[in-house]
Structures are given as structure tokens and as C-alpha cells.
Amino acid sequence: MGDLLVAQELDSIPGVTLGLLYESEFHPAIAVHPFSSDSDVTTVTKETEAIIANDLRYSDRFEVMDSIPEGLVGDGIDYQLWDQLGAVWLLAGSVERQAGEGDGFVLALELHDIVYGAVHQRGRFLLPSAEDRDFRMAVHVASDQLVQWIYGEPGMAASRIAFSRRSEDGNQELYTIDSDGTNFRQITSYGDLTMSPTWSPLGDKIAYTSRKENGLPRIYELDMKTGEERALPSER
Question: Residue 14 — very low, low, confident or very high, per pLDDT cuts 50/70/90?
């Protein structure tokens, strides 16, 4: 495993998010109906709902309706009333535990087209345990699929940024952070200059340059799942 520091969860960075600005000035209003769940998964359900609502806000594709009249919270969907409130889309969802062994969950999403008064798309997504480091990323994947249903192209919520950061002692280490500013993690601790991180096409490895050996720059590859690193061959 070399000199890699075991990654530790750090606090999120307030106000830091990754987003895109689109030229279109039209942002259809979308309402997120309170997700349903059994009583033993209420906390996970509320967290999942909040993550998706924030992903939609950061996408710069929608106007998320922040308040829902109490009379519209229920099992049925009154398309006429939602239309009068200005909603174009309505997202309903539920969270339940996966059947069998394990601590995972199943997220079911149902997207309603208010204009046509019909269900536009449905989907089910597997989520790991809420304590799993990839729980939020799994929810981001569902958010991106929701954008795909509406716009024909996925969103970018399931993005993780790798970057180098200079410390007070003058060294640079590598960090990652999710697109919504959470899961801020330090992934190297070499006490030297480490920079220029680049994700692999599958997003499971990071290549970077470090002077950690003999002060000479060399390219390394870090496996983000196993924590193993290796020096890449030098071209001559």
C-alpha cells in the first residue's frame, strides 16, 4: 500500500459545490413530494429526499418548489391542483430495506408529468447502508437518472472532484470532494509535492505526479477502492 494515508472523512466545505450554468432561461418547476417509508427507515428516507432535492437545485435545470401545501401531501396525485400551483414535474419516492441479508435499501422514484397528467417514468435504485461512504454517491446516481428522464442526458451530481491543496508547511497533498461539497477527504500524506490528479475513464483510479521519492517527479496511480498505489513506467 506504500505511503498512502488511509483516507479519513473530514467535514464538508460550506458553500462549495460543483455546477453547470445552462444557456436556457427556462427552468421548469419541479416539486419533491415527501418520500414514503416504513417507520424504521424514516431518517434514511428524509436524508435521501434532501440529497435529491439539493441535486436538482445545483443542476441549474429546475426551479425546485420548496414548500408544498399540506393538502397535497398524501397518497394520491391531484394533477389539476399541482398544475394550478405552477408545477411542471412532480417527483414521488419511497425507501425500503433490501430483502434478505445486508443493510442496504431500495429507492423507488416515480416522476409525474403534471402537464399531461400521467406518470412519465419509474425506476428503482439500490443504495448501500447509510453509514457506507458511497451512500450519498448512490443517491446522486439516482438524481442523475432523473435528469436523464426529463432532458435525455444525465445530470452531473454523481461527480467527485480530485484536487491538490497546499498546506501551511508548503507541501501539497491530494483530496477529493463530492459535487455537492460533502465527503471532503484527504487521500495522500506524503509530506511532499503531489499534484495534477487525473481520474481514470471508469472513475476508480487516480493518476498523479509526486516528488515523494528522491525529490524527483514521477507519475503514480492510486486505486480508490483498494487503496493500492503503483508507480507507472517512465517513458524514455
Answer: low
Bridge partner list, 46: none
CB 194 within 8 Å of CB 210: yes
CATH topology of domain 29-151: Rossmann fold (3.40.50)
Can you count the helices (H) and strands (E) in the chain?
3, 14
109 and 45 in contact (C-beta within 8 Å)? no
- Residue 87 contacts residue 65 (beta carbons within 8 Å): yes
Say if residue 136 is exposed, middle or buried (CB neighbours under 10 Å; 0-12, 13-18, 19+).
buried
In this prediction, residues 95-121 reach a mean pLDDT of 92
What is the number of other CB atoms lying within 10 angstroms of the CB of residue 153? 9
The three-state secondary structure class of 82 is helix
Q: Say if CB 48 and CB 95 are below 8 A apart.
A: yes
Least confident stretch, 46-55, 59-68, 88-97, 139-148: 59-68
- The answer to whether residues 7 and 228 touch, using CB atoms and an 8 Å cutoff, is no
Residues 146, 141: Cα–Cα separation, whole Å? 9
Domain residue ranges in the chain: 8-12+159-231, 29-151
CA distance 26 to 125: 29
3-state class (DSSP) for residue 224: coil
